[in-house]
Amino acid sequence: MPLIDAMDVHKTYRLGRSNVVRALQGVNMSLESGEMVAIMGPSGCGKSTLMHIVGLLQPPSTNGTKPVLKYRERDMTTLSDRERTRIRATEMGFVFQAFNLVSTLNAVENVALAAEYAGQPKPKAKASALDALGLVGLAERAGHRPMELSGGEQQRVAIARALVNRPGLILADEPTGNLDSANSKEVMELLRRFNREQKQTILLVTHDPEVGKACSRIITMRDGKVTAV
Amino acid sequence: MRILRNLARRKLRTTLTVVGITIGIWALVVMSSMANKIGALVDGGSSYFADKIIVSDSANLAFGFSSAPIRVSVAADIEAIDGVDVTVPEVDMLLDPDRSGPAFNIPDRIVASMAGADKGREKFPIKAALGRLLVPEDEGKNVVVLGSDLGRKFNKKPGERMTVRGIEFEVVGILEPTLSAPDTSVWIPLAAGQALLLETLPDVMQREFKASELASSITVYPDPGVDIPALAKTIEQRVPRTQSLTGAEFDEQVGSAIAIFNAIILGVALISLVVGGLSVINTMAMSVAERTREIGVKRAIGATRARIVREVVTEAGVIGLFGGTLGLVLGAVVVLAANEAGRSSGTILFQLTAGTAIFAVVFAVILGMLAGLIPAITAARLDPVEAIRYE
Ligand SMILES: Nc1ncnc2c1ncn2[C@@H]1O[C@H](COP(=O)(O)OP(=O)(O)OP(=O)(O)O)[C@@H](O)[C@H]1O
Ligand SMILES: [Mg+2]
């Protein structure tokens, strides 16, 4: 039973009467539980768009086609915003290229935020957040604001935030895109360790062949279509 | 705490917004305190006039500081009318003869009547804080009882001497505060008042009348259960050259003046609502725009729309709370300082009540939250994907 099942997924942006961008043109993909998969392809081929749709951040377009999007066998195409938000909060974790921590909150508060959104009361959320920071080796940086952390450290806090609710799926869009090679390596080792030790399913986007090699499978895309699985 | 950190991101902007609300609430507090004071005066007057009819010479235009005197003998004619219980001739004049025309505060007054002449009918509660009230035996003597504000204004105690309109009086008592007209009045025996009244008349009249024949007005206490407006009409018809004022007429006359004042306060409240509200909307809209990406990230990792709304609205409410509290403190300082300064001259203009204080702060908080609602909804409607791409 696949964790994610996507078939005939389209995404079309209408910028004007005749200016239509077909970001995704009938993508088929599936993801098994426990896999660590990289999506690769040239810039603008639709990697991020696919990831946002799988991550329930935006729905697929339904212009004439009947897209399938299932998470644990559940149909995701008919959910309300509230239901999609709930699944994002409890069953998915996001890591972004630009780290995207909340600048006014320190490391542990940033991580705890995700736990609070998943419904944990504040004290419990903070305890979970400290645990997660321990897993990424940043327990002693808990009180630091993002400004006071290096890029690599910020991304590890972001990984702790993605991990804190033990979600079924972690989605990472170019998680090493803003990091030097040493920090990239460290981040990838963390992700691989969670994949191996906690059977955490991970879907990531990357341009870096090294990162691709670290994954169990690569999905290649071109011009809004999947060309190799 | 998180809210404070968000507000601290743009200290100057937050401060300016808070100041905007502070000014509005400050004005609201000061104006309302003035309205409270005037309201207390009016309530005092209203309950004073409720159970009686004031009869004066028909030459007087409006009720109040009668200038044309009425003959004391008229009291007997009125008392002969069915439904009249007791009549009390009274002299009523300004304490300061040079003061004329309308002024902002209630002018100090002299009230003279024979102690006990009301035969226990006067129910308006007046108590002596120091010394005593007037008694029938005072008639013929130059003694005076001071309202509480005037006691402080002239800094007098029982036993001390005081000049009233050029005549020397002995202070025998100081009243407890009533928060209404008696606070700014002095009481003297009827004969002393009649002598002062005669002095105010033109020479021709001075030669024609004896002081003891004169009064400013006659206070009429009706029999219990009598229709007061009807009795007032009867008096005007049966006794020549009289006009009467009842409690209902007092309420009507004063009520319209109060309505104007309340409209001014409402205007101030509305202006502060609009100005304060707009500046909160502006500030929160800017703050939401600056935080577009952050809001997108929060939505992505699971914040519901309701939570985003709550976050922005709470922040706006805290701005309102700061502005409201500061406005209240500043308003209280002004009110207390003005009252302190006015104490020496006996003009207490303001009365800041707990109700006004609570209302001002609650009003500011609700105003902030309502104003925050518009940017909050904008924030909650952001598309997370676009917000995350936003630079
Ligand atoms: N909101 C939008 N409106 C219009 N076009 C868009 C929008 N978002 C994405 N696109 C277009 O869709 C296409 C796919 O974009 P996407 O971000 O998925 O590419 P990508 O593969 O992630 O590229 P990169 O490697 O540079 O991140 C691009 O041509 C992009 O310009
Ligand atoms: Mg991309």
Q: What does this protein structure show overall?
A:
The complex is a heterodimer of chains A (229) and B (391). By secondary structure, chain A is an alpha/beta fold. Chain A is built from 7 helices and 10 strands. Chain A has helices spanning 47-54, 81-91, 107-117, 122-135, 151-163, 181-197, 209-213; strands at 2-14, 20-32, 36-40, 68-71, 74-75, 92-95, 169-173, 201-205, 217-222, 225-228. In chain A, strands 6-7-8-3-9-10 form a 6-stranded mixed beta sheet. Chain A has a 4-stranded antiparallel beta sheet with strand order 2-1-4-5, covered by helices on one side. In chain A, α5 (151-163) packs parallel to α6. Chain A is globular, with a radius of gyration of 18 Å. The two termini of chain A are 18 Å apart. The mean pLDDT of chain A is 93. Chain B is of the alpha+beta class and 391 residues long. Chain B folds into 2 domains: 2-42 and 254-389, no CATH class; 59-240, no CATH class. In chain B, α2 crosses α10 and α10 (305-343) runs antiparallel to α11 (354-381). The longest helix of chain B has 44 residues, at 247-290. Chain A binds chain B through residues 52, 55, 57-58, 81-82, 85-86, 88-90, 93-94, 96, 100, 102-105, 109, 113-114, 117-118, 161-162, and chain B through 2, 5-6, 9, 293-294, 297-305, 307, 383-385, 388. Adenosine-5'-triphosphate (ATP) binds at residues 13, 15, 21, 23, 43-49 of chain A.
List the helices and strands and how they pair.
The complex is a heterodimer of chains A (229) and B (391).
Chain A: E1 2-14, E2 20-32, E3 36-40, H1 47-54, E4 68-71, E5 74-75, H2 81-91, E6 92-95, H3 107-117, H4 122-135, H5 151-163, E7 169-173, H6 181-197, E8 201-205, H7 209-213, E9 217-222, E10 225-228
Chain B: H1 2-8, H2 11-49, E1 53-57, E2 70-71, H3 74-79, E3 84-94, E4 109-112, E5 128-131, E6 143-146, H4 148-154, E7 161-164, E8 167-175, E9 185-188, H5 190-200, H6 203-208, E10 214-215, E11 217-222, H7 228-238, E12 242-246, H8 247-290, H9 292-300, H10 305-343, H11 354-381, H12 384-389
Parallel strand pairs in B: 4-9, 6-8
Antiparallel strand pairs in B: 1-11, 1-12, 2-10, 3-4, 3-11, 5-8, 6-9, 7-8
Helix pairs in contact in B: 1-10, 2-8, 2-10, 2-11, 8-10, 8-11, 10-11
The complex binds adenosine-5'-triphosphate and magnesium ion (MG).
